[in-house]
Task: structure prediction
Amino acid sequence: MAPAHPQRNLILILARDLASRLATPVFVVDHEGTLVYFNEAAEPVLGRTYAESGELRAGEWATEWSPTDDDGRPVPLEDLPLGVAFREGRASHRALRIVGGDHVARAIEVTAIPLLIAEDEIVGAISVFWERGAER
Amino acid sequence: MKVTVWGCRGTLASPGPETVGFGGQTSCVALDLSDGSLLILDAGTGIRPLGMALGTDHPRRIDILITHLHADHIEGLRFFDPMWDPSVELNVWGPPSPIRGLRSRIAPFFAPPFFPVHLRNIPSKPDFRDTPTTTWRIGSADITAELIKHPGPTVGYRIEENGHALAYLPDHEPALGSDLSSVEPEWISGLALAEGADVLLHDAQYTRAEYDERIGWGHSSTEDVVTFTRRAGASRLVLFHHDPLHSDEQLEGVLARADELKASGRRIEIELAREGLTFEL
Result:
């Protein structure tokens, strides 16, 4: 009998547990690219709480914060660091500009890391990001 | 299915007068299925007396489900009599690792300097298999394995037969990094395996005070296992993987604490695992 609440992949559970205790903004997506969590530290940068946002599919979160490059050109999902991490199974980094849920424009840098449990099996990805100019 | 506990001690076999009541053998539970199949959960030292009790009258096929490769869960495998019987079809299932297969990870235990006989020379020629990611069938039971929180690749098992379910999570620390009382059920390690189970055999190695000194070691406190059981909606909790330093008297204290905790919530039957405990599902 299928459980009423199937367990998330353990790697995602551990990633969320870790993220929930970090002061660094972290964004966690599952094997389909669905946003399944971002931590409290990410909320001021994204301009909203995870409780407000909830889960978002890849096509939704990729446009939710209107990511652009520094020249204002929109950056599609596949060119976002998480998109590269998924497509190529490697870490990826780039500078972006976003508009938060509070309608404030912010310049950020993002590093995404795929969560691979085998060479060809990805269970999700995490991205760590920070606001440019807010570095310690 | 008939369930028999052959070993329920955690970490290290602990024989002696202070542990004789609940036993000092490390993890091993036998499941006799209604179709005559034999499943064995873990191969701690308890599997040695199980092998002796089986004698030569064992099923031709035996399946051993290993939760993880810490010594107290595999140390008895080398001394399990059917391993040495070439007529036995022995299947050893265990957690997948991202790096190496189960056979190559277990092989060092069957090689010098730890053991005089190489794995390739074991007469039963055991077949080592990674647990599938979906439910599979052995004999008349459906088996589900899921990776759970414990250092290194570790799975818990759910065994279902004739509408009854047994969940086995002997080494598990679901409270690590999670508030078990409030986090959503799908984000609790192992909860889906235990959901609505008739019987849950679960790690209860530490008291609260001991756990606070050993966070991250992969085991649970009495408080956390009762909360986990309540969240899972399991009917009966069997406290398992007793600390090697806990005497019979101290274990009675653990049970008393668990009984206090359950009083505040829905009815759960709680008991301590002990060698020789049997029950039918």
In short: Chain A has one domain: 10-131. Residues 46 and 100 of chain A are 5 Å apart (CA to CA). DSSP finds five helices and five strands in chain A.
